[in-house]
């Protein structure tokens, strides 16, 4: 199996877990977050950023 196929299968598993947890994250978002983690970005920090962005989006949506 190629490394590209391995990466696709891993990302598919991440998407399944994400869906089970009702994160609301799309495949592309998960791909970007996974790549950032692989580059050494702190996963907890990424999670906190995503939560803040979600809150800000809700605030902006409620204003309109």
UniProtKB/TrEMBL annotation:
Subcellular localization(s) per the UniProt record: Cytoplasm, Cytoskeleton, Microtubule organizing center
GO cellular component: gamma-tubulin ring complex; interphase microtubule organizing center; spindle
Chief place where the protein resides: cytoplasm
Record's keyword annotation contains Magnesium: no
Keywords associated with the record: Cytoplasm, Cytoskeleton
Top-level taxon of origin: Eukaryota
Identification of the protein by name: Mitotic-spindle organizing protein 1
